[in-house]
Amino acid sequence: MKQFKICLLVSATFIMATFTHAQTVDEVINKHIDAIGGKDKIAQVNSMYMEASTQMMGNDNPVVTNILNGKGFKSETEFNGQKLVRCYTDKGGWNINPFAGGTDAVAMTDDEYNSVKDDIIIGGALFNYSANHIGKAELQGTEGGNYKIKLTSANNLESTYYIDMATYYLTKMVRQGEMQGQQVAVTATFSNYQKQMWVL
After folding, report:
1. Residue 33: phi, psi to the nearest 5?
2. CA–CA separation, 155 vs 31, rounded Å?
3. How are beta strands 59-68 and 82-89 bridged, if at all?
4. What is this structure's pTM?
5. Backbone angles phi, psi at 79, to 5 degrees
6. Is residue 10 part of a domain?
7. What domain count does the chain have?
């Protein structure tokens, strides 16, 4: 009987310790923001230039992106000598898609625009998501050494973020979106983080 009580007490203590150290979604997001520079530093960035690559039909293709914080986003993806251009502001967006036979800018549908409009925020959708009225964030446990966070926008579009449990860097994002009138799941992976020193 005494042995049973001791085991029960140890188990209860372990469970209480687990709950005590469990993190909330906001704690995980805040540690992620701190890991990539902190709110104060990120808030000082007005524009961003990025180079990346995307896989299309088994090939890596260069992507160049420019962001004007809170105001505009433009990306150019080059494939077989042609460029897919996507551009949007805080009010609407348009595409030039030569792969669909178009050479002129075509306005985005409301669904397409709503699925990407948060990209104009430097720091990503998780940065000040509550203050920016982006949506609701939920911590959905862990997976593969990452915290798994689901962000549901005001338009009920879902994005899932995977944040490394040791470094708090973003490792993967899966987002619902619309492309050429069809619902798609877009996956982006992130790696090789490096700290940079800037002298202005």
Report:
1. -60, -40
2. 27
3. unpaired
4. 0.72
5. -150, 120
6. no
7. 2
Alpha carbons 128 and 120: distance in angstroms, whole number? 13
Q: What is the pLDDT of residue 67?
A: 94
Structure tokens at 183: 């619902």
- Answer with the one of 121, 152, 172 that is the final residue of a domain: 121
Same structural domain, 102 and 133: no
Give the pLDDT band of residue 1 (cuts 50, 70, 90).
Answer: very low
Q: How far apart are CA 52 and CA 67, in angstroms?
A: 14
57 and 148 both lie in a single domain: no
Same domain, 157 and 176: yes
Tokens of 191: 């790696």
How many CB atoms are located within 10 Å of the residue 137 CB?
A: 20
Tens-digit pLDDT profile for residues 63-81: 999 999 989 999 999 988 8
Q: Mark which of 121, 140, 157 sits at the end of a domain.
A: 121
Q: Are 47 and 68 in contact (CB under 8 A)?
A: yes
Domain that holds residue 51: 46-121
Do residues 158 and 176 lie in contact, with contact meaning Cβ atoms separated by under 8 Å?
yes
